[in-house]
Protein 1
Amino acid sequence: MAVRLKLAALGHTMERGRVLEWYAEEGAPVEQGAPLYLVETDKATVDVEAPAGGVLLRIDAEVNREYLVGATLAWIGESGETLPDRADETLAAPAAVSDGQRVTPVARRLAERHRVDADRLEGTGPGGRVTKEDVQRALDAGAAPLLEAVSPGGVTYEATPAHDVVPLEGIRRVTAERLSAHWTGAPQVTEGLDIDMTAMRAFRNANRSAWRAAYGIVPALNDIVLKVAAAALEAHPALNAIFMDSTIRRYREIMLGMAVDVEDGLVVPVLRDAGRLDLGGIARAAADLTARAKARKLAPTDFEGATFTVTNLAALGVDWFTPVLNPPQCAILGVGRMRRTPAVVGNEIAIRDMATFVVTFDHRALDGAPAGRFLARLKRLLESPDPVLFAGADE
């Protein structure tokens, strides 16, 4: 009996997916467990394996189109099996409407606002009517036919838009939806302070050779920040929490979300159980997550379970910024670039390596004092490096 291949939820937040590529053609044999198609979810691009072996009898899902979770994508079975007709899975089309009624009033208004010729669009509404969604879809894809204009000489031409259309899709769409919803629902407060990184920079330079020998990698300054953040969270667990269903959930394990800038936007894979990792373990795990993020090879499980996020814009030359909470987490740490600047040291002015650290937190879950104490501990750990904190697990 033929197996119906449906789009499965590859993460608890996934609602839809875009099929990017099929690895087999209709009529070709497929093996159970072999990669069958490539799908783009709201967080990653994932190879999906064939759930059964046999022949790929029919592909119902077109490439580069989005489908809701549960939609039928294809059928696998034995050659010659009879399959349900595609039309059996859709409602019968209502009677056709006249040309004068083909564009709904709201679709017409949206089209005119963007100088789009709605009459030239293909309608997906009842009887082939052009709906607001059809117009918006064409706008998002940058494929909307423009209204014709007439020049003073009586020549008809197609007006050229004065802007480029960038579709809000994939990572960018999900980021916009989730952060917009959280921004209106959570009272967000930001606190910050300057931290003198001079001693930490010298400490790192002095230990480069030893760390390379012990870990096989020289931890970057961001790896040190991740390690120190995990240590500070162990002392201040109020920030290692999420706000969900009107409750605060404080976690014993520290699952650090690590913001990574990729071509399509920002992704936040999770550094798992960071509190138990030594500096070398954090450096290796961070390097692996970053490499796979940039290659679009992260799995849905790489994004799950974060209890706190660190986002570092130092590489972009940003001095300071106010990070936005990554829901449902209660706090996020933003790190600016390290800059050489005059600073007061004792009773003297000296040139120091300073960086601004800020924490944004959900005021429903904690107040300013716990966030301030967390920042103060970060400052102490970074300004006075403790060799024991940065020693290997076997040392």
Note: The radius of gyration is 27 Å.
Protein 2
Amino acid sequence: MRNFQDFDRRMMAEDAGAAGGASVATTQNYVNAYTGATEAFEPTSTMSPEVKIWYNTEALENARSNHMFAQFAKNIPLPENHGMTVEMRKANTFGDVPRLKEGVIPDGEKFGYSAVSATVYEYGAYTPLSRRLMRHAVDPVAQDAVEEMGAAGGNTQDKIARNIVLSGSNVMYCDKSNGTAVTTRSALDSTCLLTPTMVNRAVTWLKKHKAPKINGKYVAIIHPSVTYDLRQSSDWIDAHKYADPEEIYNGEIGELHGVRFIESDNAKVLRGKDLASDSRTLTVNGAITEAGKTITFDGGTVAEDALKDRYILVGDVKCLVTANTASTITVKDNVNGIADDTVIYPGEGGSQGIAVYGCIFLGKSAFGMIDVEGGNMEMIIKSPEEAGGPLNQFGTIGVYFETGGGVLYEERLLRVECGSYYSTVDEDEEE
């Protein structure tokens, strides 16, 4: 911390009389440093390599603290100059060894590999900091920018890993509180909680599919709202009661039925955005008594094709929207028997458009992330002399990385979808 403070003091001390005692605004507006946007911005003088190293360390620590999903990935190395697509290979398993017949040579077993291909993509962002801002701001602007940029980079990496595991094909839906089984996402309601019984069922599924454990346990990554529901159970075990805190994974909160639970606010929330600019829902305007693909609606202001490629729930009928006007919705498949004034809900979540939570249960090496040589997350700091234009007016602080990945073993990955006490208030999770 002292290095940051010393650096900021040096910046404030440089040309201390330049302002001539005049009042200097410390608010910085965003501007694209390379396109000449209208706002002014302000950075620092040349940063020493030592300062850059300290900044990079701070950012990487922030990034790693956000790695809830990626910490369970199998690392797949990609050396330099080996292309941008990686074939991640896994050995096919053998069946049981058969009993031999005396004197008879058995047929040989075939051995081979299956492959999953993944492409790496590059990600990056930067912010300009003006020389004046760095000299006169009360707050340690460069340090704060580095911390926030590192956190943003780590958060993005974690969402990329999350989206990979969400692509797995195995899904289980939580039962309703009355014991009714649920077979589709759109039938989940706020009573369909992740209970100890459902956790046990998920564990049994992984065991039946011979999914190997991670350090002796399976792992589940859940949303804080799901944590709230699960902690109502007397079966819950606090993580700190069974492990040295130094051995606990990032975000680990407890254990149940041989599963170590990781809490992440990046866990997927599926709810769907509001259907109208001034209303979450719409209503059917006129009963539909003959099969057709057009639904007339009222109850909100909807721009043309704003609902295209989204799902809607017309009552409890899920439909894919192919087009819409300000008063009609066209769906992919025919609908019929829809009463007038039937409520139309967003269809990406559960019953009546409530939030649904994707809980990820993992065995060892269920998915892989590509470790790109030279492409790990990096803080890139440019001094005014390097980036500040003809007058050296600004520097930049940015983050850059390359990554990609894919599911390796479908049978080691299970998505358990559930509702929550908070299903009516939680918002859809951004990509």
Note: The mean pLDDT is 82.
Protein 3
Amino acid sequence: MRINLGEDEQPEIGLIALIDCIFFLLMFFMVSTSFSQQTASQGQRELSVVLPEASANLDVGSTAEKIVAISIDRTGSLFLQGEQVSIKKLQDYLKAVGAENKQTLIEIAGDETVPYRNIVSVVDLCQFEGLTNIALQTRNK
């Protein structure tokens, strides 16, 4: 015996639901692509900085007992109290000064054309030896 349940209907694909899914995927990929492009461009961008001249001069030499003068010329050579030294000699000297007194004033004078990394390496040496009283010399306008 055959039971008739009605007409055999063909299955339909709901176009409204399909359009909603396609729109959602489109928006998802548009947003995720814009974030990845923004992140990639930020990693490659460089910031050019022009450091200003100092308009004021602070005389800190009168309060310190001992002043260590370190100079860096335009070729990157290091000078300690006017004498040319190697990085190893400078580190040994700073270690001895740090053992004596951690509050010794370190004055660093760098040529304006010397790469910034050279000055940072000298500051890092001073801080590694515990010397944190550091002054960077500038020129007045």
Note: The longest helix spans residues 15-44.
Protein 4
Amino acid sequence: MKRLWSLFTVTALVLALLAGCGSSDEPSGSAGSGGDGEKTAADYKIVLLLPGEVNDQGWNASNYAGVEACNEELGTSMEYVENVQPADFEATFREYAERGYDIVMAAGSQFDEAAATVAASYPDTMFMVVNGSNCDLDNLAPLFPREYEASYLAGILAGYTTETGKFGMIGGESNQAMENLMAVYGKTAVEVAKEHGFEDADYTLSYANSWSDTALGKQMGETMIDDGADVMFVYANELGLGTINAAIEKGAKVIGYSSDQTTIDPNTVVASVDFQFATMYTWAIESFMNGELAGHQVHEVGIAQDIFVPIYTDNVSQEAKDAVEQAVADYKLGNVDLTALFD
């Protein structure tokens, strides 16, 4: 795998996400209502809002794993709410803040604006949006997993999996973070495929503007596969299950993303990049309870914190596994700058 050297030292993503905010890979500062030595972990009132169902085998499942880890490892009594719809974002945030919750978390950048709106009225509640970027207040502490690092690993696997050099990609919606991770995946997959003799390798990318329409996901997957894609990559919650079903029926392969989707059909989903959000959640909640998680800054995590874990089936070659392992090592050494691949 060729190393990807950047010519840039400042990226558009950092400017867009972190303008006016601090950014840290480690906790710092004070969390306001956190750090109360008289409280046990179970005393903290914490809730996670999810845009879909916890059994989606994707984004919601990955975040729900964080709830389970906190309760099991830290002794919290963290709650969760499934299927929170956009029209109810502000009302749901406000409901739990009114009830005196210490932390209200939400899984997805789509919650960012509503969290910022409500947070201004409830300074004693910490609002944490996973994939969020708004940190204009002392009680806003978004958690930002660098998902493009996970899609880099997925792209390497796709490049070793393809037999045609044609890649199909589907995103739930078009936002900056999604566009960046798709660009990294697609360009990486194409580069690896070209290194293996597919000189005309390319990818097709479409956005569904939906996270839950499985029928639409299947239709989009069928279209791309019929047009020649032999490896699919989809990041769109329940919609992605439809795409995987299309691949099963048509004999295409899938590189799973955000959770271990190989369990659906290991002959179709030949590998996955699992988001180990349990690690991120336990770190964030424990840091808050210790009074060490600051608001007014974005907390970033990724390959360096070992939250993106490749899952392999027997259909993945040792050469591909070795390439991913080497890519992780190179990235941790600072030898790869993926921001050069952003559109």
Note: The radius of gyration is 20 Å.
